[in-house]
Write a structure and sequence with these properties.
alpha/beta, globular, Serine Threonine Protein Phosphatase 5, Tetratricopeptide repeat, binds flavin-adenine dinucleotide, about 45% helix
């Protein structure tokens, strides 16, 4: 190993890449920009205002661990620190005599503020401070509608995006000068970040469901393209079909970039003569839904809390603590909802259609504020993402962009019958109903005493009676939602 990257005084200079939600080597413009200049150190800072939770901390720990090994192999040490990035980074830059710092942009309000402060500090300095675009297909301000504003409706945005040439991913090239280790008084070990410790055991149930890291994400994408994409459009709504990519946590942590995904879909489509295949188009559109949610995160203040549609200010929500707890625990007595909430608790993820069903039940039938449901999802999903989660909860509640209209209230029974026809999904996550005839699997309260007894189900004893009447609560929701219609 050599340290050849010297400045005019003969003191070696180094480049820093500050990694955040871009835990990968491939298509990482910030990492590549640093490596192109020479010797590079990567740093990950656990910031005090990070909203990570046990589910995501578990993922983060393993992702950083994998990344540290991968970076070490190419001569880039990854170090860790904890504290306010605005304090740590300048000290680290000075301590390491760094000549440049790079990062990929993030889009949360807090993130933009912190990054802006650091940029300002280095504005007229000898230290080059540069942010790059790495986590989206296009910047949220780049895709414009005919009026020059940003898109508030998805379909025209998708159409517009397809007319643009998506930038090619940046392949990784290792720096000419490798660095073996970093001496610093500011850094700590990955273990000292305390992302997982022996007091936290909930994540243990996630372990069998996931392979974490960049290499795993790439394999998953390839397998998805080869085995599932042609069936994706038809299969993606069926909970037990296993037809979706499950790439969302990998995308959230930046183990794979959307540009890599787009590029590989296009290469796959081209080599298999599938350019216009509905599966390809549909999967691309989902990646663009992700972009759409990042546009919303960027353009609307406090999207996690404030309804985008201002007519929802003062909406008559009712926070019934008991019902909310039943929802969180998967004990509502409505099988498809309970299955989804338990899948979430045990695996850290939930099928998209079931997310819509449980969110609709919470915000419409139960009239519990969408912010409460969104917070629970943020606390429990391994793919919890400020942009996608907020935009989707606002969408289901009816106050978001291009939102589901207020009168669209999912009926969990008919949804279950349509997308989990034989009850496989419910039986997997709600084993109490394992032996119930499929005719009643989505509405056990309709089964006769005889059928329930035959299946070993005692409503109110080993499986709850429904916490609400679906028909009456639907009517109540429509009345409450009339509030929005009546706002000027
Ligand atoms: C109430 C609610 C909350 C949600 N919260 C999140 C969240 O915190 N994080 C998250 O990544 N997704 C969220 N979604 C969107 C969606 O449910 C997940 O992205 C999807 O289920 C992940 O599974 P997958 O990777 O197999 O998706 P696939 O069907 O394989 O889709 C590929 C990718 O497209 C993106 N995508 C798909 N659907 C959406 C969507 N509706 N909005 C934004 N991006 C999308 C994701 O990055 C996903 O990985 C939420 C949806 C709802 C209804």
């Amino acid at each position: 190993m050599q340290n050849m990257n010297c400045n005019f005084k003969g003191v070696y200079v180094t480049n820093i890449v500050w990694l955040r939600d871009d835990l990968r080597l491939q298509d990482n413009p910030a990492l590549q920009s640093a490596c192109d200049r020479g010797e590079t150190i990567a740093i990950y800072i656990k910031e005090p205002n990070d909203t990570k939770t046990e589910a995501r901390d578990w993922w983060l720990h393993h992702s950083l661990n994998k990344l540290q090994t991968a970076l070490k192999n190419v001569g880039v040490p990854l170090v860790f620190a904890e504290g306010n990035a605005c304090n740590i980074l300048p000290q680290f830059i000075e301590e390491q005599n760094a000549s440049a710092i790079f990062w990929n942009r993030r889009y949360t309000e807090k993130g933009i503020k912190t990054d802006g402060e650091i940029k300002t500090k280095y504005k007229d300095s000898k230290v080059l401070c540069q942010s790059c675009m790495g986590n989206l297909l296009f910047e949220p301000w780049e895709i414009k509608n005919k009026q020059g504003g940003f898109f508030k409706v998805f379909t025209p945005m998708f159409k517009e995006l397809l007319t643009l040439k998506t930038p090619k991913p940046v392949p990784f090239t290792q720096p000419k000068e490798m660095r073996e280790r970093v001496q610093s008084t500011l850094t700590c070990t990955l273990e000292e970040l305390n992302l997982i410790n022996s007091n936290k055991i909930w994540h243990k149930s996630f372990e069998p469901h996931w392979e974490i890291g960049e290499a795993a994400a790439e394999i998953k994408l390839q397998k998805f393209l080869e085995e599932k994409i042609t069936h994706y459009k038809k299969g993606r709504d069926f909970m037990s079909d296993n037809s979706t990519s499950t790439l969302s946590p990998h995308l959230h942590f930046g183990e794979i970039s959307p540009r890599t995904i787009f590029d590989e879909i296009e290469a796959f489509a081209l080599s298999n003569n599938l350019e216009n295949h509905e599966g390809i188009q549909c999967f691309k559109s989902e990646i663009v839904w992700r972009e759409f949610s990042y546009q919303q995160l960027f353009h609307y203040e406090q999207i996690e809390q404030k309804p985008i549609n201002e007519k929802f200010k003062g909406f008559p929500w009712e926070l019934d603590a008991e019902k909310f707890t039943a929802w969180k625990k998967g004990l509502t007595g409505i099988p498809i909802v309970d299955a989804g909430m338990r899948e979430l608790w045990q695996t850290g993820i939930m099928h998209n259609r079931v997310r819509m069903i449980v969110a609709s039940l919470l915000t419409k039938n139960l009239l519990i504020p969408w912010q409460e449901g969104a917070k629970w999802f943020m606390d429990t999903l391994v793919d919890a993402d400020e942009a996608a989660n907020s935009a989707n909860w606002q969408w289901v509640a009816g106050c978001g962009l291009d939102a589901s209209p207020y009168f669209r209230i999912f009926n969990p029974v008919t949804q279950g019958e349509k997308f989990d026809t034989d009850g496989t999904y419910v039986k997997k996550w709600v084993p109490e109903l394992q032996d119930l005839d499929k005719k009643y699997i989505h509405q056990p309260w309709e089964a006769s005493e005889f059928d329930l007894k035959l299946a070993g189900v005692e409503l109110g004893k080993n499986y709850p009676k429904p916490i609400i009447n679906l028909k009456a609560s639907r009517e109540r929701a429509l009345e409450a939602y009339a509030f929005v219609k009546n706002q000027a």
